């Protein structure tokens, strides 16, 4: 797994050992950043259920102003910190080792981009979408990675489900503010 482009282009990223974390395949990550390529630079990014942190790191490499990485488990949080250090992007990042709901309930500010890639078929995505929607700037975008057969809500707060892109058994589903779609 590597950073595709930007200031950390080509840098290899570490991943957690075992099956606890499922990294986004490079071809899906490339497609995702093609979809949002003009929405990254200068933005504040949330990488929820961060795992290795590859999505937030890719955004930072492409010019995002700041990224916050949230993961409840010790090993993923440590891997994210290691990956940020090895890519030289630590100065614009925060790593929070805590439950996503606790983080979003706190004083975390508003985000322009949010990546949600929790463990599949656990109900975490359906629980997280409305909480994240309440923390988004009106012009922001929520990007969910989910299995194609996992149903997602039509709306969450002021955010409406938009286009879904399919890559084999993986879907990327975007939510946008109802006044922006």
UniProtKB/TrEMBL annotation:
The keyword Chloroplast appears for this protein: no
Single GO MF descriptor: 16S rRNA (guanine(966)-N(2))-methyltransferase activity
InterPro entries: RNA_MeTrfase_RsmD, SAM-dependent_MTases_sf
Pfam families for this protein: Cons_hypoth95
Keyword entries, A-Z: Methyltransferase, Transferase
CDD domains associated with the record: AdoMet_MTases
EC number: 2.1.1.171
Superkingdom to which the source organism belongs: Bacteria
PANTHER family: METHYLTRANSFERASE (PTHR43542)
Name assigned to this protein: Ribosomal RNA small subunit methyltransferase D
Species assigned in the record: Caproicibacter fermentans
Lineage: Bacteria, Bacillati, Bacillota, Clostridia, Eubacteriales
Gene responsible for this protein: rsmD
